[in-house]
Amino acid sequence: MDDMMFLTFLATLVGAAWRLATPLIFASIGEVFSERAGVLNIGLEGTMLVGAFCGFATAFATDSVLLGLLTGVLGGMLFGLVFAFFTITIKADQIVVGAALNLLGMGLTAFLFRTYYVSTGKGIEIAQPVHIPWLSDLPFLGEAFFQQNLIVYSTILVAILATLVLYRTSFGLTLRAVGEHPKAVDVAGRNVAAYRYGAVLVGTGLAGLGGAFLTLGHSNQFVEGITSGRGFIVLAVVVFARWSPIGAFFVSLLFGLFYALQLMLQAQASIVVPYQVLQALPYIMTIITLVVVRGKGAAPGKLGQPYEMR
Amino acid sequence: MSQKPFLRIDNIRKRFGPIVASDGVSLEIQEGEIHSLLGENGAGKSVLMSMICGMVRPDEGEIIYKGQSVRFNSPREAIRQHIGMVHQHFMLVPNLTVAENYILGQGSALRVINDMDEVHAKIRELSDRYALDVRPDALIEDLSVGEQQRVEILKTLFHGIDLLILDEPTAVLTPQETDRLLALMRDLVKDGKTVVFISHKLDEVMRVSDRISVMRDGRVVNTVNVADTDARGLARMMVGRDVGMELARNPANPGPLVLSVENLTCRSETGLPAVRGVSLHVRAGEIVGIAGVSGNGQTELSLALSGLLPVDGGRVVLNGKDITGLDPVRINASGFSHIPEDRHKHGIVMSMSLSENTVLQRYDQPPFAARGMLNRRMISEHTRDLIKRFRIKSRDEDQRIGDLSGGNQQKLVVARELARNPDFILVNQLARGIDIGAMEFVMEEMLKQRDSGRAILLISTELEELFAICDRILVMFHGEILGELPPDRTRLDELGLLMAGKTEQPALAG
Predict the structure, then answer these.
(1) Which segment of A47-51, A128-132, B354-358 scores lowest on mean pLDDT?
(2) What is the value of ipTM here, to two decimals?
(3) CA distance B119 to B203
(4) Which domains does chain B carry?
(5) Where are the transmembrane segments (chain A) (predicted)?
(6) Residue A167's closest chain B neighbor by CA?
């Protein structure tokens, strides 16, 4: 019977890992776009919070998950527009602006939430798992892979689409060039700033989506600081993934696995490790990742540097 | 005369802030010629050509191309008119393949790239036709500088050119690659294309051009047929006066021994034997030259002498004191000055001001420091004095040295090293990257130093430099000193043979 228990445990773990990885997948694929264009957006934590709040507020008012997701994306992009304006047009330091937006995102969402929603205590409708005939009913495999909601499934689509755009379209080619040798792009007749704006908007839109998933596909509530550092973990995911969308997908899954593991181990009464240690697992992995994978030369050459037009 | 000019530049003016880059330039390029643009650094060659290829917009004047007045707002527009330029700093994206670089910015941004096979085929065909050896699927970052340059040239062919502009293309090439490039230029002209070749190397310009325009101070001073001129005449036009490399100099009057090197051996940074038992001596009041093809241990010799590379064996004695294997600070303090080969690595700190660079070795000593504090006023005064004496072109002593031209950076290094009143000066490539006017100046300065009793060792790959100021020339080959010659141009053959490692000297017997 122990084998059966272990298999059940494993199936639950994998299912939870994918769910918990979903916000990371969206945001890290987005950040891959941004960084490939040479823009290091460390403001993702704030951006994801804005996405989470916008999604929650919209679903609260309309009871529509889809509209919630949409406003989550738009909220993220609006934040991205502010970031892009300061870093690309004004050429302010990307780290400083990113840090400022993190603080703004945290403060703004906390303020609005406390002002309008905290007393209601009401949850929202969230996306429900879809039942796929036959597949969802498979033993173990069903729980591991086929009992998710549509948002979780869409991560596969986003990863494939992102790869095709980045490697198979003229837009993607130019984007990759912009982060490496912007002047060459300029000489080839493309507008470097426009591409960077585009990349930041894709990045923050996806980060907003990742944030919105937290309230609309996962928890049914907004909580202050609901992202709990995911925006920073995403930065590590992108490095580990060596700036590739498919890589970002799988590395996010790995981090999702750590999240799931710590949650499930906490639930096991037999484990005596303090739960704080388990909770720290994803963050410890982030630090280890950054130390081990650091500086392998895969980073875009002009990452973090503004471009001076002629 | 009867030919209508292919490209006519009429009274172009361009200013960048207070600096006049083009001061009413007029120039005519004929179809199907190789037209060289010759001039010192900062004469305005690159800026002029950047205006023709749409990188820079002129303030005034007219460009008439194929009989029509044109005004390009971007390089793209110039490319559409079949004007291609290969810049000094390549416009290639390192993490993309050759083919991807070529299609960068082509077509609609939302286009799906599905014609890579055709692109590859076209690249292969062009590469074969001009023997360029370019693989379409190679990543740029895996290619050598010479290969990247061929990729750049092929890029212009790929986009279609009638006019090709090459900006100082040979600066990064080996002699063999240079020969290949000059041959390629001839091939292109044979196919009906027109080539503008920007250079400041007289010999290359003489070898390949049909006509030569000489630029100075933002103007074209003269255009001549190559058959009607010679290197000396061109040099005169470049600097605006006669430059004999024959500097006026007194016979040497060598005094006591200053530096002696005995049987020095050391290895290169990669661990291979680089200097294999070099012995030499330099007396006060003489300039000893070391000639040789680069890569024969000269770099390691100078690094080992100045304490930047560990010594494996042998002795270096300066003024009777053994300085073998000491650290650079102590070697510097023993009356040793070093004008390094790679000034960015060993000579100056690019992000610091002229003042700060001037006191790099002495910031902690009086009069530049007292009780642990810098004496800024003293440092500034000293730097201003050097700027004036060495005619270093800079805004003031607080300007970032990285903003200066290479020639002026070199002048500061020379000024600083001489100002330390050394007994011995080690120079590796005195005139690297500096123009003829400045070159003459620093050479004269070296002769003055010699006459005031200093010992100088000049390592150089430029024979002209060695002939002009040395009293004796040693030849280094494969880590050894093969022989010694007087600086006599008539014995150039002998020198060449030694540099190639040939030592058989039949007439020596007796």
Answers:
(1) A128-132
(2) 0.85
(3) 38
(4) 7-239 (3.40.50.300), 257-349+421-508 (3.40.50.300)
(5) 6-27, 39-60, 66-88, 95-113, 150-167, 197-216, 273-293
(6) B113
Cβ–Cβ of B107/A189 closer than 8 Å? no
A11-119+133-293: CATH topology is: ABC transporter involved in vitamin B12 uptake, BtuC (1.10.3470)
Q: What is the DSSP letter of B323?
A: -
Neighbours of A227 (CB within 10 A): 29
Within an 8 Å CB–CB cutoff, is residue B106 touching chain A?
A: yes
Q: Which one of B75, B107, B108 has the shortest CB-CB distance to A187?
A: B75
Question: Cβ separation of A180 and B111 shorter than 8 Å?
Answer: no
Q: How far apart are CA A172 and CA A259, in angstroms?
A: 32
Is the Cβ pair A310, B112 closer than 8 Å? no
Q: DSSP state, B423?
A: S
**Considering only CB atoms, which chain B residues are within 8 Å of A183?**
91
- Is a pLDDT exceeding 90 seen at residue B166? yes
Whether residue B213 is predicted with pLDDT greater than 90 in this model: the reply is yes
Q: Does B115 touch chain A (CB under 8 A)?
A: no
pTM exceeds 0.95 for this model: no
CA distances from A79 to A203, B143, B213 (A): 11, 41, 55
The reply to whether residue B74 touches residue A189, judged by beta carbons under 8 angstroms, is: yes
| Three-state DSSP state, B144 | coil
With a cut of 60, say whether residue A85 has pLDDT above it.
Answer: yes
The H or E element spanning position A264 is helix A245-267
